[in-house]
Amino acid sequence: MVGYFLEFSILLDSAAIPGLLLLFCLNFFRDPKREIPKGKGILVSPADGKILQIKSVDDPDIGKANLVSIFLNVFNV
């Protein structure tokens, strides 16, 4: 009887790590539904996060542009 519970415990432990990894991946790659506002002069962010800075830059490939730096938090989508 003890052997049965020992084998069951080993199976449960070996399934716990992949199960936790699966839950983490499902949480990390979730894609929540969002309503994108429509209208003239509206700016929509490409990412969720905190804006750190907005500045004008002179890029060699595209010329003058606005650089928006966003700090992304993987736990807050």
UniProtKB/TrEMBL annotation:
InterPro entries found in the cross-reference section: PS_Dcarbxylase, PSD-A
Membrane-spanning parts: 6-29
Name the record gives this protein: Phosphatidylserine decarboxylase
Keywords from the UniProt entry: Cell membrane, Decarboxylase, Lipid biosynthesis, Lipid metabolism, Lyase, Membrane, Phospholipid biosynthesis, Phospholipid metabolism, Pyruvate, Transmembrane, Transmembrane helix, Zymogen
Organism in which the protein naturally occurs: marine metagenome
One Gene Ontology term from the biological process aspect of the record: phospholipid biosynthetic process
UniProt keyword annotation of Transmembrane present: yes
GO molecular function, one term: phosphatidylserine decarboxylase activity
Keyword Transmembrane: yes
